[in-house]
Write a structure and sequence with these properties.
Blueprint lengths: L5 E6 L10 H15 L3 E7 L6 H4 L2 E2 L6 E5 L2 E12 L4 E7 L1 H4 L16 H19 L5 E5 L6 H6 L12 E6 L12 H4 L18 H11 L2 E4 L6 H10 L2 E3 L7 H15 L5
Parallel strand pairs: 1-2, 1-7, 2-6, 7-8, 8-9, 9-10
Antiparallel strand pairs: 3-5, 4-5, 5-6
Length: about 280
C-alpha cells in the first residue's frame, strides 16, 4: 500500500474562526483541497480571544495539554484545543495560553497598537505547534507555513528539531504574504530564540527584527517558497529571487489548490530529505 503524503498546515488565520482575509481563506480551503487529493493533513492556528469557543465548539485536548514552554526564562502553560469544520471533514488544532491569547483582539489592541509581546506570542505559537505534533507522533512530509506568526517554523525545524525523528524528513514551505507590520519586535528577540541546536549564526537575520527581516530569515531556512500575494516588498521580492529556492509564483484564482498540491509533489521529488 502506498503511503499517503502528510501535510502539516500552520496558519496565523483560518476562516470561519477569524474574518475573511487572503490568509484565512487559504487556511480554510487549502487543507480541505489537499485532503481531497489523497493526502493526510493536520492544521494549526493560534486560539485568539476573538474565536468564539461555544459557537465553534472548541474543546480542550487534555492528553496534549499540560506542557510548559520556557520563553525568556518564564514558564508558560501550553493548552491545546480542537474544533471541526464539518463541511470540510477536517479538524483544526488551536494553540492556547491564557497570558498570550486570551484577549479580545488578534495582533493589535482596541487602539490599533501592535501588541508588545507579539514576538513572544510568535515563539510560543511555533514551539507549541511543533511540541504538539511530536506528542501526536505524526511525521509530516511537508510543513506549510502561512502568516508571519508562523515565521519561526523553518528555523526551528532546521535547527533545534532537526534530529527529531518526527521532523527530520520534513520539507518546509513558507508562503510570503503582504501582511506587513511596521513596528519592530523587541531587540531581545534573537536571544529569546536560543535553545539547544540553535547558534548565533542561525539567528543573525533576526538581530533587527522587523517584518522584512523575519520574512527573510524564514525564506533562508525554508526549502521552498510560495508567493501568497501579487505584490511583495521590494526587499523581500529581491531576496526570493536571490535565494535559489524552489518558488511558486502567486496564483490569482481558485486554481491555487491544484497548483500548491502539484508544488508539494515536486518538492518531495526534488529536494532531498536531509536538505
Amino acid at each position: 500500500m502506498i503511503k499517503k503524503p502528510k501535510v502539516l498546515f500552520i496558519s496565523q488565520e483560518i476562516a470561519p474562526y477569524l474574518e475573511d482575509s487572503p490568509i484565512s481563506k487559504i487556511g480554510r480551503h487549502l487543507p480541505q483541497g489537499t485532503q481531497e487529493r489523497g493526502k493526510e493533513i493536520r492544521t494549526f492556528m493560534p486560539r485568539f480571544g476573538v474565536v468564539n469557543e461555544r459557537r465553534n465548539q472548541l474543546h480542550e485536548v487534555i492528553r496534549l495539554s499540560g506542557m510548559n514552554l520556557i520563553i525568556d526564562d518564564s514558564d508558560h502553560p501550553l493548552i491545546i484545543k480542537v474544533a471541526s469544520i464539518q463541511a470540510a471533514r477536517m479538524q483544526v488544532y488551536f494553540i492556547d495560553n491564557e497570558e498570550y491569547f486570551q484577549r479580545k483582539h488578534t495582533i493589535r489592541d482596541a487602539d490599533n497598537k501592535f501588541f508588545k509581546d507579539n514576538d513572544d506570542r510568535t515563539i510560543f505559537f511555533c514551539r507549541g505547534v511543533l511540541e504538539t505534533v511530536k506528542k501526536l507522533g505524526w511525521a509530516p512530509d511537508i510543513i506549510h507555513c502561512h502568516g508571519w506568526m508562523s515565521s519561526l517554523i523553518p528555523l526551528f525545524v532546521k535547527t533545534a528539531y532537526r534530529e527529531d525523528p518526527i521532523f527530520k524528513n520534513a520539507r518546509v514551505v513558507y508562503s510570503v504574504y503582504d501582511d506587513e507590520f511596521t513596528e519592530p519586535f523587541s531587540d531581545s528577540y534573537s536571544k529569546k530564540l536560543m535553545m539547544d541546536g540553535i547558534s548565533n549564526a542561525d539567528v543573525k537575520d533576526l538581530k533587527n527584527p522587523c517584518f522584512d527581516s523575519i520574512t527573510i530569515a524564514a525564506i533562508n531556512k525554508a526549502d521552498a517558497i510560495i508567493k501568497g500575494a501579487e505584490k511583495l516588498s521590494t526587499k523581500v521580492e529581491n531576496h526570493i529571487k536571490k535565494s535559489g529556492k524552489m518558488v511558486l509564483p502567486y496564483q490569482p484564482d481558485e486554481s491555487y489548490v491544484e497548483a500548491y498540491n502539484n508544488f508539494y509533489d515536486e518538492i518531495m521529488e526534488e529536494i532531498p530529505v536531509e536538505a
